[in-house]
Amino acid sequence: MKRLLPHWNTLGLTKKFSLVFSLLFSFIFIIAAVSYVSFLYINKAEKNILKSIQIERLVLQMNHGQQKARQLIGSFFLHQQQSSLQEAHERYAQPSVSEIARVISLSNELKKLLFHKTESSIRGITQTDLNLYLASAKRFADTSIEAVELVSRRGAPEIGVQARLRINATSLAKEIRNHPSLQVQYLNMVSIYKDYLISRQRPVMQRALNMLSELQTVITQNTSFTANEKGIFLKQFVSMRNLAQELLNIDLAISSTINDFSLQEQITERISLTLIQQSQQEVSFAQNHIQLTQQILGYVILTIALLAFFAVLSLARLMQASVTYRVLSLAKAAREYSKGNMGVRVRVDDDDDELGLLGTSFNSMAGRLNDLVITLEDKVEKRTADLAIREAFYRQLFDHGSNAIAVYKAVNEGQDFVFVDFNQAGEKIEHIQKEEIIGRKVDEVFPRLKDTGLLDTFREVWKSGEPLSHPDFYYEDSRIEGWRQNRVYKLPTGEIVAMYDDLTRQKRAEQEKEIMEQQLLQAQKMEAIGLLAGGVAHDLNNILTAVINYPEILLLQLPEESPLRTPIIQIRESGLRAAAVVADLLTVARGVANKMETADLNQLIATFLESSEFGQIKTDHSHIHYSADLGEHLSNITCSTVHVIKCIMNLVINGSEAIPATGEVTIQSRKELLNARQAVKYCLDPVSYIVLAISDTGKGISEADLDHIFEPFYTKKVMSKKSGTGLGLSIVWNTMQDHGGGVVVHSSKKGTRFDLYFPISADQHIKKKLLPTLNELRGSGETILIVDDEPQLRKIAMTILQELGYITICKESGEDAVSYLQTHSVDLLLLDMIMDPGMNGRKTFEQILRIHPKQKALLVSGFSENAEVDKALALGAGAFIKKPYSMYELGEAILDILQKTMELAYDNR
Amino acid sequence: MTTTLPFHKFQTTLFCGFFFLILFILLSSCQESQKISECKDTLGCVTISAGAPLQIGVLQALSGQVAPLGQAQLRGLELALDKREHTLLGHRIVTQVEDTGCTAEGGANSVLKLIANPQTVAIFGSTCSGAAATASKAMSAAGLTMISGNNSAPFLTSIAGTAAPNFEKGYFRTAANEENAGKAAAEYVYLKLGLKNAATIHDNDIYTRGLVESFQKAFLEMGGKIVLATAINKGDTMMEPVLQAVGKSQTQLLFFPLFQPEGNHILLQARKLFSFNEILLISDGALIEQSFIQEVGDAAKGMYFVGPQRPTGTAVMRLTETYQKKYNEAPSASYFFSAFDAAELLFHAIESIATQGKDGTLHIGREALRNALYNTSAYHGVTGLLSCDQFGDCGNAAFNILRLDVPEQGIDGLESNIVHSWVSK
Fold first, then answer.
1. How many domains does one find in chain B?
2. Cβ contact A709:A743 at 8 Å
3. Any B CB within 8 A of A268 CB
């Protein structure tokens, strides 16, 4: 063993395993071979047992069958003499034949068993004996059948030899019945014949035949018989002799047959006995053989198993030392190495096999790896740091980017998406913390998101992997609202990323810009209309000033009973109405500076409801129910009361005319705080407003018409006497613009509602104004310089002022006025703002102020640019009055300025 | 560098094992088929392995009073075997001897024992023609060859140049066809002795029946009259009734070619009858036997016998000497010569057709053996030149009419007292 070890160590791993497995295989093969051989032996022995038992059974059956057949044949021979042949045939011969047939069948079966594939191997039985035994059945059958035939030939009724012989004898007896001597001979012959039938001895028959011959001789010699009778006798004798001879032959054949049976029995009895004995011995032998084989097999397998056991132990130890131990060492070293013990090495002796090479290679590899690892660790450390920096960098980008970034994980096969990450920009935009949404489905966080189609975009991107830009959309739920712009793409790891911006400000700016553009457009349009209207109004106002004021002057001069008063009053009223129309035009043109005052909206509504105009409306629309729903404790507003009431009237008229049959028009007032969204939408500030709402249950306004209803002269109504000038809603809109408020229209097929938003006034005190009398308006002789380019208006103004007690000086232009004041001074200027040609009112005032810095003026204009009026007022003009003015209006304005001037002078003292 | 895995090695070993196993099976199969293909004989072959004996079946009448005849046949065979030292083509010759009892049924049952053995090359026998008739039928059907030195019944081969009723292919005999023995006897009694009336008795054996019929035919043809043609059964002892019938038949002679003991009973009981004083008794070769002479003694004086001519010559003398030396007695009958020739003829034929393999296995074609015997021509036998015809007759048909004058001189005295010789013309 020690000698072999060095050789063993030099073997390769493959050869070692080959040798070990070959040895083990050899053991297995030997066991298998021994088992197989034993199996064959046992199998063969078992087959022999089975075969021998079958042989014994068949031989016994054959013997029994043959014996039975012989007995039946013997009985047939016996009983065919005692009883009828037919009966004997049926009772014995036929069963015998059947039994023989069965024996032949058994014989064939035995033959197949003995000679199937191989010849019989039963010891003690020669092939000859077997063949003979098998052939004996057939021979026995042939012999038996022959015997039955012979007996039948002999004993058959009427046609059998004996029967025919008996018939002949009877016939002969009849012929000789009259011859006693012959009868004696005949009877002797018959007696001997009967002896033969019993003994079947040929000499006995011969004796009978001898007597027959004697009888024949006697008859032949007897002269009492005729030749013919003798011929008949002779035939009978010949026939009887032939039958006797035939009977002898048959009996001889039967005797031979019986002898044959005996011989056959002698042959088969010995063989069958031997067959049975040998079959039994074969069974016993085979059983012993099986037992012996099993014992030997047990010993052999036990021996081989022990050898194999020790061999396996030895081989296992050898393999453990030369392979397993070294593999484990390698594994242990590898494990240590994998744990980071870079200094571990495998013990390598002088082994030349693969494990030795593997150990050497491992050590070499470990050394090289150790060197590489040191370098690699530095690289990895640097790389890790780089990655950390990059991670931080990207995390910073993610968290601090201006765009919102949401990372989703697809669930339910891409039908739903769950938040995985969310950056700070997203938190800011969506007003939600990342921790609140991580792990939640996107439609749980943004329940209305599915209406925007963004979820479908998520699904499509998740499915296709292609990035998509989702169209800008407006999102609104109970928590948040705003415009979003999304770019969706799919990460290689499968997550969906939505990067989006909050476009709300941009969109709102765009909306505001659009509104402003619209407003600008509207303003420009209004301005153009205003310019047109303003020009007309200026001229009309100048004219109307005369029309209004002259009647007033005339009325002052006419007695009360004068019949001219009425026509003059009519003229004056017509002038006022014309002035109202012009005023509307000016309102639309927004070219006139309205007088603003603090007012209670509810009071203004009440004023309207009590007015004759509202009474006329109710009369015209009797089928409509008018109601008012006024809010309580409303703040006051700063407004042009005339315009507000005019707005109410216009809207009530429009609402009434919008109701074709029965319906309702409601006037409401309320206080409302606008939120930011509403403020943007309504182009107002997010503050509280006093709202005047006038609604009807009419047919509503179409979408197309909504954009145009505030335009001047835009009307869908059929022109009639009820129709207005086409300026109603334009006046409303311009009034609200002048008041710093807004108009919001809500319209549907069920009706329309106009909400007029009035800013709340800072001054909540309402001045009570009383209409003064002429006496109260009279001056104290103050000098008033009238500056107007219209001579008629200068004259009217001069007339009124003089009537009121003032001293008037008239100048037709600003230049003249300045020139005059270079040398003069006046208490007050009545200065027309628009003069043509020459300086306008402002410039004139500026020039005058250079001369008389404290000069006060009452500005007058039929149509004036507000900017010029404002500038002039800012210069210290004092007040403004629009044309056409009435005596009262002029007088009050002048008196008011003069009083303030006096108060100021008094204060300055 | 490549390495062989253990599993591959195992596969190679397994494959080699299977290869050799299959090769072994194929070789075994080829060997088996080679054995079968060596025999091309239409009736099959007897294959005798090296060292195995060559088996010859023997059917003879070895019981009863006819046993001496059967014994003579056996001795003739033994002498032939001795001559070959019981060996043929290097194989020891063994015999399976069966007793026929000189009956048909005995022959039928005995021959079954022989043909049942597939190794039986041929059958030597039988003694009695009756047994031969049944035995040859079974033998022929089994494809065997049978040769007798004693059967002489014409029914077994040919009658008048045509196949006899009991002719069977493969049957041969060196004993003469005694179809002409009856004729020889008839010519002698009718022509030489001038007897015109004759009675005949046979024992229903085909041998005796054949002789009687050939006698009757020849006698009638010459103008004689058969006044009584009767028979006895084998085993009959009471011959008086038949002899009375003969006595009353006014016959001048009684031809009774019977075997012992029936022949003995006829002779002895006839001598007691007055009516037989003037009746000439003539029998056949079956009674030309020492035991018969000894038993009947003087009763046989003057009795005639018709039988085959006794062979002569040096070969006969040497064989006779051999016989006497071997058995320490003189031959009781001369039929052992034809038995010797029959055995020799058979052995010679086997030698001529047998093929022997390199391993010593002997193959004997059954059809070839028959043909060899049928083709036998001018074979120098002890009994003369033997030539077999198509019916299996190989012996020479020459008969002598003997008369026993001095019983004390025994068989030799009888056979030497030739009163007439008949040779086929």
1. 2
2. no
3. no
Same domain, B317 and B389: yes
Q: What is the mean pLDDT of residues B116-125?
A: 90
B271 and B413 belong to one structural domain: yes
Every domain of chain A with CATH number 3.40.50.2300 lies at: 774-908
Distance in angstroms (rounded) separating the CA atoms of residues A405 and A425? 7
pLDDT band at B126 (very low <50, low <70, confident <90, very high): very high
Mean pLDDT, residues A746-760 taken together? 92
**Interface touch B236/A203, C-beta < 8 Å:** yes
B272: CATH:
3.40.50.2300
Integer Rg of chain B from CA? 27
CB-based contact B117 A131, cutoff 8 Å: yes
List the beta bridge partners of residue A473: A484
Q: Which helix (H) or strand (E) holds A619?
A: helix A612-620
Q: Which residue has the higher pLDDT, A60 or B350?
A: B350
Contact yes or no for A131 and B118 at CB 8 A = yes
Q: Does residue B301 sit in the same domain as residue B325?
A: no
- The C-alpha of B244 sits at a distance from chain A's nearest C-alpha, in angstroms, of 7
* CATH class of the A401-502 domain in this structure: alpha beta
Q: What is the spatial distance between Cα A27 and Cα A31, in angstroms, rounded to a whole number? A: 6
For A224-266, write each residue's pLDDT tens digit.
888 888 888 888 889 998 999 899 989 888 888 888 888 877 7
Task: Give the pLDDT confidence score for residue B4 in this predicted structure.
Answer: 39
- In angstroms, what separates the C-alpha of B326 from chain A's closest C-alpha? 31
- Residues B410 and B263 placed together within one structural domain of the fold: yes
* A509-536 as b/e: b if 16+ CB within 10 A: eeeeeeeeeeeeebeeebeebbeebbeb
Amino acid at A788: D
Question: pLDDT, tens digit, for every residue of B38-63?
Answer: 678 888 899 999 989 999 999 999 98
A267 shares contact with chain B (CB less than 8 Å)? yes
User: In this predicted structure, what is the pLDDT of residue B27?
Assistant: 47
Same domain, B238 and B271: yes
Partner-chain contact B238 A201, CB within 8 Å: yes
Touching check for B324 and chain A: CB below 8 Å?
no
Chain region(s) in chain A for CATH 3.30.450.20: 401-502
Predicted pLDDT at B6: 46
Verify whether the Cβ–Cβ distance A260 to B118 is below 8 Å: no
What's the pTM value of the predicted model, to 2 decimals?
0.51
In a domain? residue B40: no
Question: What totals of helices (H) and strands (E) does chain A contain, helices first?
Answer: 29, 17
Q: Give the pLDDT of residue B28.
A: 45
Does any CB of chain B come closer than 8 Å to the CB of residue A598?
Answer: no
Tell me, yes or no, whether B301 and B364 share the same domain: no
Mean pLDDT of chain A: 83
Instruction: Indicate whether B386 and B334 sit together in one domain.
Output: yes
The encoded tokens of residue B110 equal 């005995």
Is residue A752 scored above 60 in pLDDT? Answer: yes
Q: What architecture is domain A774-908?
A: 3-Layer(aba) Sandwich (3.40)
Asked if ipTM goes beyond 0.95, one says: no
Give the domain extent around B124. Answer: 47-178+312-397
Mean pLDDT over A460-488 rounds to 88
| Of the partner residues B120, B239, B248, the one whose CB lies closest to the CB of residue A213 | B248
Higher pLDDT residue, A704 or B390? B390
As a CATH number, domain A601-765 is 3.30.565.10
Q: What is the pLDDT of residues A87-117, one digit of tens each?
A: 888 888 888 888 888 888 888 888 777 766 5
Q: Which positions in chain B touch A248 (Cβ < 8 Å)?
A: 231, 233
Say yes or no: B319 and B382 in one domain: yes
Backbone angles phi, psi at B224, to 5 degrees: -70, 175
What pLDDT score was predicted for residue B376? Answer: 94
Q: b/e string for A186-224 if b means 16 or more Cβ within 10 A?
A: beebbebbeebeeebbbbbbbbbbbbbbebbeebeeeee
B7 lies in some domain: no
Residue B32's pLDDT band (cuts 50, 70, 90): very low
- Classify residue B233 as exposed, middle or buried by CB count within 10 Å of its CB (0-12, 13-18, 19+): buried
